[in-house]
Amino acid sequence: MLDCITPELCERIAKSDSDSNGVACKFFKVGDMGLKTYKNEEDARESHNLQMRAYFLELAPEVLSDVFQIHLKKVGYYVYGFMTELVDVAYNKLLRDNGYDKMPNGNKDAIQHLQQQFKELYQSHDYIMLKTLLEANDFEFAAQDLHLKNWGWLNGEAVCIDFMA
Ligand SMILES: Nc1ncnc2c1ncn2[C@@H]1O[C@H](COP(=O)(O)OP(=O)(O)O)[C@@H](O)[C@H]1O
Ligand SMILES: [Mg+2]
């Protein structure tokens, strides 16, 4: 595991805006790594443990640090998080491949075209394999919650990024 948590890195993160927010996790892109943060230590540790276990089964990106505490100056509170390898999230990749960086609101035809592709992704070999392997390895919650913002590709392989119930 990397020991990449320098004071400079923490200072940089503390001042930045998050790149994506899920329900539980605030996510930051930090150079060529990601930082997953949670409001409480238990959630961070659970997410860290689940991702470690999944990584050894080649179903998740690598966990690159232990859990550490960091003060987010922009939002004004402490969070707990860990560094992770970056994944090309399925939802983002599909938009990007179609020339968008977010849903093209108001453009009915474009939205319909994208929705058709979202549907096809749920029937793809990568998605079905990943879901099946998650189920077979007791990641039931992750398998059930495998929407397009919870998985993506890493070196051409489909991996899950969200294991939290
Ligand atoms: N390893 C990662 N690589 C790239 N993006 C990520 C990674 N982990 C999380 N994200 C981004 O952060 C968002 C929220 O993270 P997620 O683990 O799904 O948290 P939540 O449990 O809150 O849904 C994801 O939908 C994705 O956009
Ligand atoms: Mg999620």
Assign the structural class, choosing from mainly alpha, mainly beta, alpha/beta, alpha+beta, or little secondary structure: alpha+beta
- Strand percentage lies at 15-25%
Helix amount: 25-40%
Per DSSP, the total helix count is 6
List ligands, each type once.
adenosine-5'-diphosphate, magnesium ion
Rg from Cα: 16 Å
Overall morphology: globular
Parts with pLDDT < 50 across at least 5 consecutive residues:
none
Q: Distance N terminus to C terminus?
A: 25 Å
Description:
This protein has one domain. Helices cover 39% and strands 22% of the residues. The protein contains six helices and eight strands. The strands form two sheets. Strands 1-2-3-5-4 form a five-stranded antiparallel β-sheet, with helices on both faces. A three-stranded antiparallel β-sheet has the order 6-7-8. Helix 3 crosses helix 4. The longest helix is centred in the first third of the chain and has 16 residues. The protein is globular, with a radius of gyration of 16 Å. It starts with 6 loop residues before the first helix and ends in a 5-residue tail after the last strand. The mean pLDDT is 92. The structure holds adenosine-5'-diphosphate (ADP) and magnesium ion. The site of magnesium ion has 4 residues, from loops.
